[in-house]
Amino acid sequence: MPELIEVDLYRKAAESALGRTIASVVIPNETYLVGDSGLPKFRAAICGRQLLGIRRIGKLLLLDAGAVSIGMRFGMTGRLIVDGEPAIDQLLYTTNEVQERHVRCVITFEEEGALSMIDPRRFGNVELAPDEGQLGPDAAEITSEELTIFQRSSASIKALLLDQKRIAGLGNLLCDEIIWRSGINPTRGGRTLQTSDLELLASTIRGTIAELSDRGGSHMGDLQSQRRQGGSCPIDGYELERDIVAGRTTWWCPEHQL
Ligand SMILES: [Zn+2]
């Protein structure tokens, strides 16, 4: 599933379309377009505009078209195809095969080529001028000061890290890997976190994202191969525990995650 690392690969791939002028947009099922613009207004706002910037905040990809931005969210299974080339060859939990019925949004350019969103399970969406203020600071550059808001919440650390309003970009796999590397129990409440915990957490978030970006994806973590029945902690060999935390399947080590 696309997390910050995957969406950043989409951002880099989409950069080849910078400077091109949008000719048309096709959204086969209009419910994929969220917000209050509606398709005619969306088309009027972006067609004829030049693609001037490509940005990412957390898991949100932003295409700056003239004075407005197009937001793309990739949900569980979304992918971006740039000029016919998939930005990521293989994405965990999804099929690589592109089926026509899974094409959710196609933006074509006057010069050449197109950006296409493929999303089999359709949990993603497209929005004109999304509210960027709804997102917390980007996880790739998070600081311990920005995490102090965790100390005012009794929610679990897993829920806090998944909450895109508090910190943007982490999904289930990155969360479990980061919490495991930090030696913190995923069910621990935010209020129990000390300043030293937040410093360790912030540096682990940044470091894990950088390392797994180099390795090629959110699914390249050290814990990944052990996320299964009978899986054991790569640090100390203890059998991992599995439970639903913050509504998501969560794996952790009962020995060193306290
Ligand atoms: Zn362990």
Short descriptors:
258 residues; alpha+beta; N-terminal domain of MutM-like DNA repair proteins; Helicase, Ruva Protein, domain 3; five-stranded antiparallel β-sheet; five-stranded mixed β-sheet; 5 helices; 22% strand; binds zinc ion
Oligomer: single chain
Helix content: 10-25%
Structural class: alpha+beta
Helix tally equals 5
Supply the CATH architecture of the largest domain.
Answer: Alpha-Beta Barrel
Number of domains: 2
The CATH class of the largest domain is Alpha Beta
The shape, in one word, is: elongated
Q: Mean pLDDT, rounded to whole units?
A: 95
Major β-sheet profile = 5 strands, antiparallel
User: CATH superfamily of the largest domain, please?
Assistant: MutM-like, N-terminal
Order of helices and strands: HEEHEEEEEEEEHHHEE
The order of strands across the largest sheet is: 1-8-9-6-7
Looking at the structure, the CATH topology of the largest domain is N-terminal domain of MutM-like DNA repair proteins
Give a written overview of the molecule:
Helix 4 (172-182) packs across helix 5. The radius of gyration is 19 Å and the shape is elongated. A hairpin with a 4-residue loop joins strand 8 (103-109) and strand 9 (114-118). The protein has helices at 4-14, 38-46, 157-162, 172-182, 195-215; strands at residues 22-26, 33-34, 51-57, 60-65, 68-73, 79-82, 85-86, 103-109, 114-118, 125-128, 241-245, 248-252. It folds into 2 domains: 4-133, MutM-like, N-terminal (N-terminal domain of MutM-like DNA repair proteins); 136-252, Orthogonal Bundle (Helicase, Ruva Protein, domain 3), CATH 1.10.8. The chain has a 5-stranded antiparallel sheet with strand order 1-8-9-6-7, with helices on one face. Strands 2-10-5-4-3 form a 5-stranded mixed sheet. It has a two-stranded antiparallel sheet with strand order 11-12. The protein is α+β, with helices and mostly antiparallel strands and 258 residues long. The chain is built from 5 helices and 12 strands. Zinc ion binds next to loops.
